[in-house]
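hey team, just a heads up i'm posting the complex here instead of the shared drive bc the drive is being weird again. everything in one block, sequence lines first with there labels, then the predicted structure for the whole assembly after. its two chains so it's a bit long, scroll down
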Amino acid sequence: MRDFQARSLSPPDRPHDEENSIAEELRQQQQKAELFAEVTLKIRQSLQLKEILSTTVSEVQRILKADRVLIYQLWTDRTGKIISEAVLPDVQSILGYEFPDEVFPTDYQTLYAKGRVQAISDVSDPKSGVASCLIDFLTQFGIKAKLIVPIVITLNPHSGDQVKNNKLWGLLIAHHCRQAPHDWSEFELELMQQLADQIAIAISQGELLEHLEDMVTDRTAKLRHVNLELQQEIVERKQAEDALRCSEEQLRLITNALPVLIAYVDAKQNYQFNNQAYEKWLGKSPESIRGKHLNQVWDCYDRMEPWVSKVLSGEVVIYENEIQWIDGTSRSVSVTYIPHQEGKGKQQKIKGFFALITDISDRKAIERMKDEFISVVSHELRTPLTSIHSALKILATGRLGSLTRDGHQMLEIADENTDRLVRLVNGVLDLQRIEAGEVTMNRQVCNAADLMVTATEAIQAMAQQYDVFLSTAPIEVEIWADADYIVQVLMNLLSNAIKFSSREGRIELTLRCRANQLQFEVRDWGPGIPPEQLERIFDRFYQVDSSDSRKKGGTGLGLTICRKIIEQHGGRLWAESVLGEGSRFIFTIPPLNYGEL
Amino acid sequence: MSEKCILIIDDEESIQTVVEFGLKMTAGWEVISASSGNEGISRAQADHPDMILLDVMMPEMDGLATFRALQLNDQTRSIPVIFLTAKAQASEKRLFNETGVNGIITKPFNALELAQQICKVLNWTE
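-- predicted structure starts here --
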């Protein structure tokens, strides 16, 4: 089969009669043109390759009057199959036959891909160059003469290298089975070649169509996928919206159920959210307030404005206010503003704030009642106390008659406890006033040394009574304080130290000047205070040892009052102690030039 | 110390009594008493005491009103007055001082130390 060679085409036989010859040629040319047009039309009428191939073989068979016309498709493994055939009824059909690769070696394929046409007029003629083994092969299908035209398709028409891009798709083959030799005319060759080209075009178009269809399928699939994703996103968004709505509804239910005014105000001071309490308390429904500026809602906006500015600068704000109720009554409220911040650092932005307003009228009323009660009771106690106190003192002089020794002892007990009662009443009243904010420290420039000396002198008699040595190291430094109250604190701390010192004990009052504060210290060498009680001793009526307190005649209010006084001065009071080694009571006062002046 | 006549105006009789005892005992002063503002004004007009101890908190006419009435009266205007008060707060003391009163003594006080306190406030020498 390797020796199989293409025979050069023999020129068509010329009729002797020149005129007839010309007429015949003209007729053939016309027929050829018509035929090409017809076949091309038929081929182009369909986009289905199978139909195209079938039309092609039928038309070729009809025109060439060949016994068999077929299309052999070549596969990539070099085997192939007859996929279309037009055959005369009395000739054997070979449609569907598959041929092994050895029938069609690679070098043949290369030649065909380059466009080789093979026309054999008689396969049995040794000149035809058909190998003997192949003659038998051809004979079994009754083939006597054959014309083979390659169907070559261009893979990528836009690529430059035409030859490389050419691919042998298959072969268009015509057989004559009944008579040989059959000399293939140029017309036959041309027709076959033209039709092979048409088939190639149709295949390319088909492949293109297939490719397009693939692309359409692919795009459709992608579109469907995107569509699905979109639908999923819509569903998810809807779910999120539902969840948000549900959450908002829950929040609204909760906030509406609370007896507190709850609102969100934006940075322009316009309400964006209000709970139902606004309607219940103020007669202003959330719908009617939404979007309104604070000053359109509140008559007392002037009082609120500084606090609003503060929260919009990023600070949490808590203050008390008086607001008008729907029934016309004035109520005390506690107001909390919490800034709504977004971003961090320099990017931080205040978007608005949350406002919580709680009615504290009842608490305020109770506080007022308590304060009034304490005040009245304390005042009312003072008058009878004056009488008892004075009467006992007069009795004790003995000028109204002498008493027995036991009588004197009883009188002394009554006298001492009256003093204690007086201190207690004063203490309770002091504390109540400080806590109620009724006490305003009358701060002035004063000399710390003077205060220390005053307190020491005032307490000296007591120190002597207890046989305690009191030393002071006054420092000349100016402070900004209410002298009376600081002396009261110093006396209280010194008297405590004296009471808890042993006989012949020692007490020191010192002052240290620190960078931004002055530190007073009362030091004793008494029994000391257990660590867990160092803070509790500042609680009212709390004493380290209750038996001690009775013995020392304390009221249990002294340290509480002292701490309040120091706090009112912007300072701090605390205790340090080591059991068995004594205690230090230390308080700080900001120096003169520290903020106040 | 020369003998003085002191008028105590206080609705509490026990206060009147301890003041009388205390002042008599420690200074030998004479003490006359009144239980209301009006009674006090009458006694002041009639007896011309050397000074008046005036309780601030009294029913009907309180100490401040009584003091104002005494100030408006030619016969009593020159008599020194010291308030007796249970209100010990500095702000209240300031308020009382602004009335032009001669001094303030805070309850509870010791009747035995009262004469000394009065002398100190009024600059009476012994």
